[in-house]
Amino acid sequence: MTSASNEHVFSEEIEFKIDNLYDKWMSLGMAMNGKHYINDLDLEQTIAETTQIGKYESRLVWAMLTWLIAHGDIVNISRMMHFKKEADEAVLGAVLEVAVKNGADKKLFHIVEKCKPHDPREVLFKRMKQYAFSYKQELELSKEEWSKWGYYCSEISFYFDAMTGDRNFIFSRNKNLAIRAIFGTNLRSEIIYFLYKNSNAYIKAIADATGFAYFPVHNEIKNLVRNGILNSTSYGRVNVVSLNKTMFDFLQKAPLFDGR
Hints:
Radius of gyration: 20 Å
Structural class: mainly alpha
Number of helices: 14
């Protein structure tokens, strides 16, 4: 599946973003024509990007929808709320609603409730606007699942046969998601992953990097220090925290981290 097969040509910037998202969804276990994304990807950012760029490449939308049905429980709801402003809210709401109706984790509906329909209503996929027949078809045969969100689209597709990677594959390619498998899709996992990648940091720097408010991060770090997962060192009024060596070694050897 390549973006070059599209019948109308997009800008180089859009083509680059399409190819980049192909790489990311490949690293999440979807069979796409691309290369595996080199770094641990940001799942919530990837979803937000796909709701925007997927309007230029429908395969990305259907790959995302299929993945969310199978693996939506890995999504961090709080982080996804932070990325909602970067997403197309209507596409996000529609895709998550369809996903939940087809078996995805029901917690995703918390995001759906915060999304707004697109106004004014328009055809979802950009290429459909180029041809009178396809444009008319989208308007006349638009599915209610899209129409209620302010878009015309006559299709809902699932790519279950394109799911080539199981959870072990996903976690081996994305250590941040493997940490979620161990500690849950919560703030704790985001803090531990950040400190796994960075030897030590101020609490404010961790809050800024994870996108959460200072006080929830501060309180969670206190709990992690109390439980021996993090070390805390004071420099005057400033505390610097780091991952306990035992926990770092545990994560290094965790089976979920194998494969890359």
